[in-house]
Design a protein that fits this description.
The chain is of the alpha/beta class and 213 residues long. The protein is built from 8 helices and 9 strands. It folds into 2 domains: 97 residues, Rossmann fold (3-Layer(aba) Sandwich), CATH 3.40.50; 85 residues, ATP-grasp fold, A domain (Dna Ligase, domain 1). Helix 7 packs antiparallel against helix 8. 30% of the residues are buried.
């Protein structure tokens, strides 16, 4: 089996390292990969957001399975592009990836489906968001709506810090279009006033009907 790993970060290096250990994989590709993957996979000089280029490469190299690491290509619809060419790929569709690529969408979905989430609101106006912050108590969370390479969420310990985070997102635009909209939420605290909490991540692998999981 030939496998392609899309991405260039530590996450993709870890995925490639583990996949390389499988006796079922005859050849491993990484696009664009990094210094770590270069020693264990064949590098393809294709950017992760070049979904059409990646699909064409998967066809030309007869890739049996593609694994996507970064959120960016998923939000741009790489899964839909590959599936449109009948190429096997792991990941959510562009529509499903909005849960990750838009915090406002994820919040609206949770509220609509009755999934508990922090009290807060979504804003597209800096002035309205600023007034909301002034009406709340700290600590408070300020989130850039879109993908921001893991930098878009600030747990502000004061209103001044929250306002600085808001200005960074909506006025200075340090996250670009990802900060066109912001989500402002309360901070969950335990009975001791601590804001840290345990986290668990779940991955569901569903087999095709009649197939093996």
């Amino acid at each position: 089996m030939k496998v392609l790993v899309v991405g260039s970060g530590a996450r993709e290096h870890a995925l490639s390292w583990k996949l390389k250990q499988s006796p079922h994989i005859s050849e491993l590709f990484a696009a664009p990969g990094n210094a770590g993957t270069a020693s264990i996979a064949r590098t393809l000089d294709i950017a992760p957001d070049d979904t059409q280029g990646l699909a064409a490469a998967a066809q030309s190299h007869k890739i049996d399975l593609t694994v996507v690491g970064p959120e960016g290509p998923l939000s741009q619809g790489i899964i839909d592009v590959f599936q449109g060419r009948n190429l096997l790929i792991v990941g959510p569709s562009k529509a499903a990836a909005r849960i990750e690529s838009s915090k406002a969408f994820a919040r609206e979905l949770m509220q609509r489906k009755g999934i508990p989430c922090a009290r807060g609101a979504v804003f597209q106006s800096f002035s309205e968001a600023a007034r909301y912050i002034e009406s709340q108590s700290a600590p408070i969370v300020v989130k850039a709506d879109g993908l921001a390479a893991g930098k878009g969420v600030v747990v502000a310990q004061s209103k001044d810090e929250a306002m600085e985070a808001l200005r960074d997102a909506m006025e200075t635009r340090v996250f670009g279009a990802a900060g066109d909209k912001v989500v402002i939420e309360e901070v969950y605290q335990d009975i001791f006033g601590q804001t840290k909490a345990n986290e668990i991540s779940l991955i569901l692998h569903k087999a095709e009907e009649g197939g093996e999981s």
